Fold each of these.
Amino acid sequence: MRISVIGCGYLGAVHAASMAKLGHEVVAVDVDPVKIERLAAGEAPFFEPGLPETLAEALASGRIRFTTDMAEVAGSTVHFLAVGTPQGPTGAADMRYVDAAVASLTPYLTAGAFVVGKSTVPVGTAARLAAEVSAAVPGATLVWNPEFLREGFAVQDTVSPDRFVYGVPDGDAGQRAVAALDEVYAQALAAGTPRLVVDLATAELVKISANAFLATKISFINAMAEIAEVAGADVTALADAIGYDDRIGRKFLNAGLGFGGGCLPKDIRAFQARADELGVGRSLGFLAEVDAINLRRRAHVATLAGELLGGSVAGRRVAVLGLAFKPNSDDVRDSPALDIAARLVELGATVLAYDPAANHTAARVRPEVETVDSAAEALRDADLVLVLTEWAEFRELDPRVVADLVAAPVVLDGRNCLDRDAWTAAGFTVRGMGR
Ligand code: UGA
């Protein structure tokens, strides 16, 4: 099938490469010439396991091309919209990239073409854009097909997702859109991936409510961590125990620094803002609390660090292990780890930070946080060790080796990811989160 992908960020770059890998003819467009040049040269613009290989395979097949020229999408049957919807100044999603993408795509649409939205948008956006598209090009149809990929597993989640959701209009156009998307995703569908056909508004809501639920689950366990801390309980044991109930499930019940990244934090705020506009703000009132619990975790770590250093971090040497918002990523957007490192610098600590992938991205937004090239360099002569992203490299550190490097054997495990017994046996004072 001839496909275009508009927007080559996280979502678009992975989607475009994966679609070519599946055998489709893909043209991928972005307004950023540097990004396009790098992708065309087979260079992934961000750290994502499996993407360089998928991209190389796609380029070698000759089935993908990258361009800044929108005119090249002409002739594609399916046009995926994969541009960003960042947080605007009021918390609501900034729709300018989506609107601009649709406006610049419209001149190249033909009757029978499908515009398929993948971006996370405020409910109601698809209906508005669908009207614009069919007014401009009678016979062209806009549908919504939200994406659920996780960073770190983006290729796998794109090629074999948990489910497909197609938001389509009633009638023939909707049926034709379903048939077109079935062709795009034929391989995963043949392997039994569930596919739900819904209306436009439901498709938009599925995406944002899934993220709101995940954020709520994380803040729930972090609220339990706050209680466990004052009650003298262990939130990790609590999560294990409640997680055995199938209705609850153990996944996304890891207490720690809370959620960050380019999706969960901005999505819960955008969802609240949209509910307010729709006059049902109270329905999502709890999301303000979810956000507040989440942000409290960061302040709490800074306070704990001061306590562990006898009252203040000022003038003390702190090793920060991890800056990315989660492991297997170089993404530091709204990263709790980077936020905490910057707070400690502001409080006067001498911070040496190391992340296996995110040093360069962190340096761009928080140049005041000094980064080093290895965990050992960060750890040398440290008065306190903070583990802020649960990379395997940190989980697997030998505490006896670390003990020889640091000035004082004190570790704050912000992700409850270390083997407490082993670190204690090596002479460390180990402070976890909510335990
Ligand atoms: C999230 C969703 O999980 C995806 O399904 C969705 O497609 C994506 O947003 C999106 O909207 O594009 P992602 O941002 O890659 O994916 O990250 P997650 O794996 O959800 O992790 C988010 C944050 O929650 C991370 O900072 C992670 O450390 C934190 N987290 C996760 C916890 O603090 N505890 C947990 O138990 C799980």
Amino acid sequence: MGEPRKKPNAPLLKVLHGQKQTKPPVWLMRQAGRYLPEYRALRQKKAGFLNLVEDSEAAAEVTLQPVRRFGFDAAILFSDILVIPYALGQNLTFVKGEGPKLTPPLVNHTLKTLERAPQHLKAIYATVRRVADVLAPETTFLGFCGSPWTVATYMVAGEGSRDQAVTREMAYRDPQAFSEIIDAIIDSSVDYLNGQIEAGVDAVQLFDSWAGPLSPQQFERWVIAPTAKLISRLREKQPHIPIIGFPKGAGSRIKAYVCDTQVNAIGLDETVDPLWAHQYLPSDLPIQGNLDPLALLVGGDALDQAIKTILDAFSERPHIFNLGHGILPQTPLNHVSRLLEILRA
Ligand code: CP3
């Protein structure tokens, strides 16, 4: 991809442009969140999670907290993948102990009954501007959204689920209605990412947390094709933005995902063998990952060993160090410090 156009000294952005760094830059998925006491303190003052997301001053502060404490190479915008269903007109609540709820669920309501509410996204662009204004030139600012498939699983079922059966069933039973939902998510995600980029993020990640349980044909149709469409539409508006794909649980289908979606970099979950990935993925493709969040939680020798395995496997290619999934809320802070100490030694 050539040189980064802005922030020429940001190591993580350089890796996204294909330039291997001697020490891999690092950030952690869900790095702004409940494992941080300063997050919990601020969160307590707000009525709900959405109030925090919609309060740009507080959301900017939360975005910066992990960077300030640990000096990560990237800040990730504090928001959520479910703001897209919210903007498409579903009601969104986060029920303590139960996770997010979206109403009405699209398994038995059509999109047409919803009243669009794109105004909900304005506060998020304001958060981006605030963070971009103060972020150091060596720190990469990441925007994000959910992938169409993963966002659709929440919109259809109205909540999270272990195997996404309700949504997979709908995709077989009524592919026409389901593709209308996917297309609506693509449209608003392109606008949303474009808005984040115009407001100042340097790169974006597509979170496909539930890409795993689909059959091969359905994976092709509902993960790869919509992601490819989203990316080509975004690149019409933003030809230079680096895009990280994270198809969690995709296993060996990662090869097809990389090739057919044209992502600039691939995030691996912790189940992917780094040696396999290094051998079978294009040698110039930046790889992000893939420490087991449980190894970080446990610490000690298990952590040191797990870090070494990943560093050894990716020593010859552009690599961004990350977890294979979000950091667990019970993770001790000194284990994160230990990780950074090893990476920067
Ligand atoms: O630090 C960051 O990574 C940036 C912020 C971020 C959040 N969610 C904040 C959040 C990001 C990138 C996400 C992505 C997200 N949200 C995903 C994809 C990644 C993944 O983990 O698979 C998904 C599936 C969601 C949906 C979501 N949001 C769920 C299922 C929940 C409830 C479960 C939980 O972890 O509490 C959320 C809430 C949420 N999003 C919290 C945070 C910090 C916790 C809310 C709180 O503090 O009360």
